[in-house]
Amino acid sequence: MMTRDHTPPETTFGQWVFRSIALAGMTACIALAVALLVRQIQPSWNTLFLIMAPLIATAEAIFSHHILRLRPQRGSDYWRFRLIELLVLFVIVRLGLFLGDAPNHMLHELAQWPRQPLRILSVEMFVTFMFTLITWLFALDAARDFERAGMPPDHYQDESSPLHSIAMRFFWGGLVLLFLLGALLADARTSPIPTSPPAWGILAILMTYFVFGLILLAEVHFATQVHMWAHERAQMMPTLSLRWALYTALLLTIAGAFALLLPPIGTNAFRALSDMVTFAVELVWLGYTILFYITLLLLFLITLPFAWLMSRFAESSPLLPEAPPPPTAFSIQQSGGTPGTWFDILRAVMFWGILLYALSTLFRAYLADHPEAVGAIRALHPIAWLRRLWHWLRRAASTLQDETRRLVASARMKSPLPNHPLPPRHPQRRPRTPRERIFALYHHALRTGAEHGVPRLPTQTPHEYAHAVRHQRPSVTPAIETITQVFEQARYAPYPLDETDVARIEAALHAWEANLQRTDEA
Amino acid sequence: MWHIFLFLVLALLAAAAFFQVEAFLSVLYLVVLVYVLSRLWARQSMRALVFGRRIPQRLFWGEHITGEVWLENKSRLPIAWLDVHESLPVALASGESPHEVVSLLGHERHTITYRLVCRKRGVYTIGPSTVRLGDLFGLVPARVVGGDVDELVVYPRVVPLTQLGLPAHAPFVGMKNRVPLLHDPSRFVGVRPYAEGDPPRQIHWPASAHLDELMVKTFEPTIARETLLVLDVDLARYAHGQRYTAIELAVTATASMAVHLVQKEQQAVGLLAHGIDGLRQSRELFWLPVQSGHGHLVHMLEYLARIQPAEDVSVLPHVRRAIARLSWGATIVLATGDADMDVLSHVATWQRQGFHVVLVMVRPGLSVREARRTTDILGVPLYVVWDEHMFALGGVHKP
């Protein structure tokens, strides 16, 4: 039994999850090697977060790629989106560096920040963030390649194939890992304190990286082939993917078992090879050193005449100002002085106020760009309970406020309490004409959409918004199309509108709300 | 992608040698083994794969057939994936060309079936079947193997002559002379009473004794019941705008006449045509001397399947050589699209040479009226074929 599906299959959610896990596994191996090396060189640094940071960056890169695939952004919107993402990563890295620290140490560090703001940017912070940034960039490219693997071949004719790009990344990542582990072991050999990880640990890291990489290659190769076959309208055996996975696992198991059983270092041939490589490296190093000294010599010879001329000019010039006298103890005392406690408090308040405001603005912008994250957070039970509690408290406070105002007003007038409720604090003019009502209903539809994770971007026209919704939530397409159509009539049509149009948009609005609710629950 | 792996292997080797770490060597083994095993597996799969095609070679117009491409893995080792594509002529394909991706277990056999509809006569090439296979990681370039090519002949459409508007009662039998000039002594057909002037050698003595009356033998006249079908596929002789359909109709008419004469009239029939050979893609003279029998008919139908129209391929100059081997009084049937002066002069010549000529015009233009006037004068039967089904509006025979 064959299947002939002429529509090229898109990258499925399962494929994304599998690839993300494989990518995260490979990243974790490199991060672990970095952490081991850092622990050996700088034991005081936070190596736990050094492992976690690249994983967070990888997850964020894949997530943001997914968001941009759903809601493409161009120009300044795109760069704003990326900048906010990077700043959030920066904040996470900064906060993550406190991971595992004692509370006292953390508070002491935080107390230093208003006085010395540059302490935020420590060397550890810089290294960790750069490592996170590089991982994020690599993960972004990998996510792009994963997406290209789900496209017909003619979509990337002018570029290298996604399989090739992933193989290259796998290759470079492997080289980095080899270098890190090699440096780690070389350093451990010369170190008086034996801190290197056990041999099986090194082997496990390497094997995990390369096995994950090979599995990823096989999976992407399969996906690329499937898309090519679908493009060529070929029938595929239904069990093909299963057999592909099975054979890959079998081949890797056999190769892995043999790799572990084959004789390791110790043979004469390998020793000779080792000597040759060491000799070659030493030769390269010697060549590099000679080249460096030759360059220095050339630079010296080139600058020598100028230096001589300058020295002559310095000796003969009577116009040079005299060197200022050295600072005295008196001047030091006059220039400074410790400010008072009030100044420290004011500075701390201003610092934390500005910082917290900037952070809240940043995270609000981030969450506005990532409504799916908001939805996921809201779906968590404790968060949902807290939200319900917050809404209840707000309602209670509002009711209490209204009651208090009514009581105060009635007490002032010294008259019996009126039975009718007070008018709202901010009365809004109710829409009167059908056109105005259609506008109001359209805005209501936009608000509902934003609450359910499909916000309309400022740069989107109503038609573009409807198109984006059609792509994200196909089940609500008829409703949003009707709403958009009626709104565009109301906005641009010169002829008057009547109650029929209002009824149409109302019916579509009900369907829109119900379908959004249903899709959220699904 | 193999060069990336080569660099990786070299880097691993250098790192293992420089840092002297056993784990590096194990990873090196893993990478090399994956590459080598993938390559060996792909090569072994290619060796173990046997495939072929099953399809009839000769088909009649309108037939529906099922073709097969079979694949067999001769080895115990499975074949990870195979991309099989069979090339089919568009004129016969029913749907898309078969293109399947399969995976074969050890000694597994798989068959891909497809349907062909013979909706147009001709010689077609089926195949080659291309099989592409590779490894699981994309490390080894996929190998492509091409299979054999089969030729498929679809005979032209054959319809009853009445559908073409041609008379079904032996219209092209040789001239019936009441008094034959010569007799063929080998073709004894019966006896008749003696008449004055009958040669004494022809008296049938046993019959005369039996009937008590002189009876003479009667023989078949030497005017042979032979027909040479001449098909003109010169594009210039067919009405502009419907040339190809008209030529196909001419081929159908010629094939139908051949089948009718051979199978029903038991006549000897020959074929002469000049055009492009669909098999060799070159100008050829299709000439089959007059013969009878089923094998000869099949040969004629194959020629009619192969012939393709072209410019400047008039058959008329070649008729002279063909009729040199015809018996006196044989019938020449010329199927053409237009009876211009050249055609009519040739017809007149053949008639003068003692042949019975029949002119079949297929979807003629306005010249049919002039042609009919001339053929009436010459005494040549003229039939007009308009369509395969318009028998009621078909040829008008004016003796």
Which keywords apply here?
heterodimer; A: about 525 residues; mainly alpha; B: about 400 residues; alpha/beta; 4-stranded antiparallel beta sheet; about 30% helix; elongated
SSE order and pairing:
The complex is a heterodimer of chains A (522) and B (399).
Chain A: H1 13-41, H2 47-70, H3 75-96, H4 103-112, H5 123-148, H6 162-190, H7 199-231, E1 235-236, H8 240-261, H9 268-316, H10 329-335, H11 341-369, H12 371-379, H13 381-413, H14 434-451, H15 462-472, H16 477-492, H17 499-521
Chain B: H1 2-19, H2 22-48, E1 49-54, E2 58-59, E3 64-73, E4 79-86, E5 99-104, E6 109-117, E7 122-126, E8 129-133, E9 143-146, E10 150-154, H3 161-164, E11 183-193, H4 205-211, E12 215-221, E13 226-232, H5 243-264, E14 268-277, E15 282-291, H6 294-306, E16 307-308, H7 316-323, E17 331-336, H8 341-352, E18 356-362, H9 368-378, E19 382-385
Overview of the molecule:
The complex is a heterodimer of chains A (522) and B (399). Chain A is built from 17 helices and one strand. Chain A is mostly helical and 522 residues long. In chain A, helix 1 packs antiparallel against helix 2, helix 3 (75-96) packs across helix 5 and helix 5 runs antiparallel to helix 6 (162-190). Chain A starts with 12 loop residues before the first helix and ends with a helix. Mean pLDDT of chain A is 81; it is low at 329-337. Helices cover 31% and strands 31% of the residues of chain B. Chain B has helices spanning 2-19, 22-48, 161-164, 205-211, 243-264, 294-306, 316-323, 341-352, 368-378; strands spanning 49-54, 58-59, 64-73, 79-86, 99-104, 109-117, 122-126, 129-133, 143-146, 150-154, 183-193, 215-221, 226-232, 268-277, 282-291, 307-308, 331-336, 356-362, 382-385. In chain B, strands 13, 14, 15, 16, 17, 18 and 19 form a seven-stranded mixed beta sheet that branches. Chain B has a four-stranded antiparallel beta sheet with strand order 5-4-8-9. Chain B has a three-stranded antiparallel beta sheet with strand order 1-3-6. In chain B, helix 1 (2-19) runs antiparallel to helix 2 and helix 5 (243-264) packs antiparallel against helix 6 (294-306). The radius of gyration of chain B is 33 Å and the shape is elongated. Residues 173-182 and 391-399 of chain B have low confidence and may be disordered. Chains A and B meet through helix 6, helix 7, strand 1, helix 8 and helix 9 of A and helix 1, helix 2, strand 4 and strand 5 of B.
